[in-house]
Amino acid sequence: MTDHTTPLDATDLPGAVKRYLKAHNEHDVSAASTAPAPDATVVDDGETYEGIPAIERWLGRATSEFTYTTTFLGAEHEGPDRRTVTQRLEGDFPGGTVDLRYRFTLHQGLISHLTIAP
């Protein structure tokens, strides 16, 4: 099997991905919600959130339910419209530490789909 990924530095990520990650890490729901397309979907913890209002509600819960910090571990370019970012979260949630992969699909400069999973 051939690996078709290219490692990326955080500075090489598309603008929408950088904007989302920065805002999410700063617990800024309104800034984070500017990165997804109006009809975007997010899949996190087995739940799917469709459209900006649902994504904003999810972001609000995700940023207020627990206290955590994030550390960028790496990123990969997986095609013209796909990037995966790995971050370590440490905080007061069950387990205390987890490495999460944020799998972004982009369309016209915005995030059209995001899946977050270990």
From TrEMBL:
Protein's name according to its UniProt entry: Nuclear transport factor 2 family protein
Domain of life, per lineage: Bacteria
Domain spans labelled SnoaL-like: 17-107
Pfam families (UniProt xref): SnoaL_2 (PF12680)
InterPro entries from the UniProt entry: NTF2-like_dom_sf, SnoaL-like
